[in-house]
Every structure is written in C-alpha cells, then in structure tokens.
C-alpha cells in the first residue's frame, strides 16, 4: 500500500509479532451476517485508529443459511488477497480465514474472534504461526468447538467475557487489533479489560467532539472574532506578521473546526511555503472535506501539491521558524510503517506522513 515499503526482518520473530507492511485488512463476517453488519461497525472504529490502512469487507456466500462453508473459502481465494494481508474473522469468518492458511495461503495473518475450530464439514488440522484466536469457553454457541485452539494457533486466549454479542465488545476487539499492530499484544493482553482508555480511544473522543455542530457561524469581518486565520492564505499573512508556524496553524485548525466552513479550505497555501508544507496542507484540505462532507477544493489536485518521494519531515526536521522544534525520527522501519498507517490516505498519496491525531484540537 505504501511507497517504498520493505518487509521488516528480524532474526527471530517475537510472539504474536505482526508481519509488516500489511497490504490490506479483510474483515470477514459470520454466518447469517453481512459486509454491512458487525464488521462494518468494526471497520468504522479501526479506520479511525489506522486511517492509512486499506479495509475490505467482502460479501461471503455463508450470509445465506445452509450454504456450504467451502463456497466461502473458495470465494475468498478468488479475491486474490495480497500476500501478507491481515484477515480478521468474526465467528465462522474466523474459521474460514484460518482454513485459508491450510489450503495454500500460509502467508496470511489471521485474527479469529469467537470462532470455532470446526463447523459444517470444515475442520482446522494444523498449527499456523500467523494465526491468533480469541474466544470464550463460556460462549454457548461455540463452547464445544474451541478446545483445540491452543494447539492450532500460535497465540490464543480464552476470554470468559467474549460472547457472541460482538457489537458489545467492539472496544476490546479494537484493542486486540491495535495492540497486535503495535507489537504489544502479548505484553498487554492480560489487562485488556482493566486497562484505562487507550491513546486511540482518547482520540475517538476528540474526533467525536470535533464533529459536533456548534451553531452557525457567520463569515464577515465583524463576526470572525479572535483574529484567527480563516484560510491558508491568512495562515501565511499571520506568519508574515510575526506568528510562528505552530501558532498560526493551530489557530487555523481551531477556527475551521469551530465553523466547518468550506471557505476555510478554498485558498491555496502561500507559494513561499516549503513544498512539504504545501503538500501537507493540501492533504489536510482534502481530508477535512471528506470527513465533514464539504466540497473538495479543486486546487488540491494540482501536481505541485504532490511530493516526488515519501517525506516524514514533519516529524524529524527542525522548522526554520521554530528552531526549538525537535522530534526524534522513527527508530525502525516498523515504527515508520506505523506512522504511515496512522496517517490519512489524503496525506499518503501526496507523499506526506502526518498522523491524523496531529489534526485534532480540543
């Protein structure tokens, strides 16, 4: 998915360590479910945490009753899932994902949630190193079909609270996904329900607050209070007047989120801004237009707002107008990949790495 990605290699793989990069995440629904059901709600949560990832929800034959599971297995095989993709399966979706690893797709990464090890003539037979399973022996729907998970999965946990009401547990399922991608699952798993809110969950609260309508704001010289820049052109004017980039940009963010007015996105960045900064601002305009349902400004598609190579200068290069600005660069390819996965696609397609949480304001 990301330009110039290389596999992160190590001499010995740690327990439950993800294989990076992940070209796509497939969310597989359970029996009688659909791509627009529970997995859709799960995607909405995960996509906010990892906006740079590609999420795919295929419609599988077993949404209809009395359909042979082999039909769904063949259906996923025909999707030509990219190598090293991550499959998250709910109930029978997890069994199907795990079975794919036994019919020629050992490369796949699988997280099975509340899944049996056998059903309708399909039985898991071998252990897979890239297979994670989370289930409850108190789940009456699958309690007689989960005993073999410790032998069949490289990492598994019997979580007594994890029943088949998946929607009720979306927060914790999202934590499993987040911690797996962060490489911290084995360390944190046993505190999954005792853990305080995570960084991603706190971000959800901020995004929810930002989405609220705060009353109509009139755009005229008398009503625009506080002296904050109204658009990107005025960000440049504020800096010319002596404000630092950080203050001018933060002021514009607060002004836009307060009003969510399309006119805040209409003006192009000043031509004297660096190419990296201009590309980042174009990505911001396109991202906010999508998030808040505003018209996408036409200027954002101009070629000058796309960098020739991927840049993460926003993280590790001192700003000329703020010499005290210092952020350490990523210390590994895995860390850099995770930064990309947390960046909106509108940034990534311009060659910019800029995590979505950097666009949040309170």
The class by helix and strand makeup works out as alpha/beta
What is the CATH-assigned architecture of the largest domain? 3-Layer(aba) Sandwich
SSE order = EHEHEHEEEEHEHHHHHHHHH
Radius of gyration: 23 Å
Strand content: 5-15%
Task: Write down the domain tally.
Answer: 2
Number of helices: 13
CATH fold label of the largest domain? Rossmann fold
Helix content: 25-40%
Biggest beta sheet attributes: 6 strands, parallel
Oligomer: single chain
What's the overall average pLDDT, rounded? 89
Which CATH first-tier class of the largest domain would you pick?
Answer: Alpha Beta
Strand order of the largest sheet: 2-1-3-4-7-8
Q: List the uncertain runs.
A: 1-12, 315-320
Spatial separation of the terminal alpha carbons = 31 Å
Choose one word for the global shape: elongated
- Number of strand segments: 8
CATH homology superfamily of the largest domain: Alpha/Beta hydrolase fold, catalytic domain
What does the model show?
There is one protein chain. By secondary structure, the protein is α/β, with parallel strands linked by helices. The chain has two domains: 25-195, 3-Layer(aba) Sandwich (Rossmann fold); 256-359, no CATH class. It contains 13 helices and eight strands. It has helices at 38-49, 69-77, 92-100, 149-152, 170-181, 185-188, 199-211, 232-240, 245-259, 275-291, 313-316, 333-341, 345-348; strands spanning 25-28, 55-56, 86-90, 109-113, 118-119, 122-123, 128-135, 153-158. The strands form two sheets. A six-stranded parallel beta sheet has the order 2-1-3-4-7-8. A two-stranded antiparallel sheet has the order 5-6. Strand 5 and strand 6 form a beta hairpin. Helix 1 crosses helix 5 and helix 8 (232-240) runs antiparallel to helix 9 (245-259). The longest helix is centred in the C-terminal third of the chain and has 17 residues, at 275-291. It starts with 24 loop residues before the first strand and ends in a 14-residue tail after the last helix.
């Amino acid at each position: 998915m990301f330009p110039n990605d290389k596999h992160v290699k190590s001499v010995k793989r740690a327990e439950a360590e993800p294989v990076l990069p992940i070209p796509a995440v497939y969310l597989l629904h359970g029996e009688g479910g659909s791509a627009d059901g529970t997995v859709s709600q799960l995607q909405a949560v995960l996509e906010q945490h990892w906006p740079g990832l590609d999420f795919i929800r295929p419609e599988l034959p077993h949404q209809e009753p009395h359909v042979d599971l082999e039909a769904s297995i063949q259906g996923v095989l025909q999707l030509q899932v990219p190598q090293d993709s991550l499959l998250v399966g709910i109930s029978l979706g997890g069994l199907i994902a795990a079975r794919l690893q036994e019919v020629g797709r050992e490369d796949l990464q699988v997280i099975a949630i509340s899944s049996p090890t056998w059903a309708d003539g399909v039985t898991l037979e071998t252990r897979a190193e890239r297979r994670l399973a989370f289930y409850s022996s108190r789940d009456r729907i699958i309690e007689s079909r989960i005993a073999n998970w410790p032998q069949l999965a490289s990492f598994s946990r019997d979580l007594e609270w994890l029943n088949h009401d998946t929607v009720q547990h979306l927060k914790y399922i999202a934590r499993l996904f987040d911690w797996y991608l962060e490489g911290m699952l084995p360390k944190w798993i046993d505190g999954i329900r005792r853990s305080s809110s995570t960084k991603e969950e706190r971000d959800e609260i901020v995004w929810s607050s930002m989405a609220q309508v705060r009353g109509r704001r009139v755009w005229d010289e008398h009503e625009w209070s506080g002296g904050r820049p109204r658009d990107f052109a005025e960000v440049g004017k504020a800096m010319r007047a002596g404000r630092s980039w950080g203050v001018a940009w933060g002021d514009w963010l607060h002004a836009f989120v307060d009003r969510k007015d399309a006119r805040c996105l209409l003006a192009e960045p000043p031509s004297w801004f660096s190419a990296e900064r201009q590309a980042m601002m174009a990505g911001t305009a396109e991202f906010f237009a999508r998030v808040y349902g505003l018209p996408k400004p036409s200027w954002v598609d101009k070629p000058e707002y796309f960098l020739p190579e991927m840049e993460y200068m926003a993280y590790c290069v001192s700003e000329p107008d703020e010499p005290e600005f210092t952020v350490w660069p990523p210390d590994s390819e895995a860390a850099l990949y995770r930064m990309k996965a947390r960046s909106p696609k509108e940034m990534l397609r311009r060659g910019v790495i800029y995590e979505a949480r950097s666009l949040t304001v309170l």
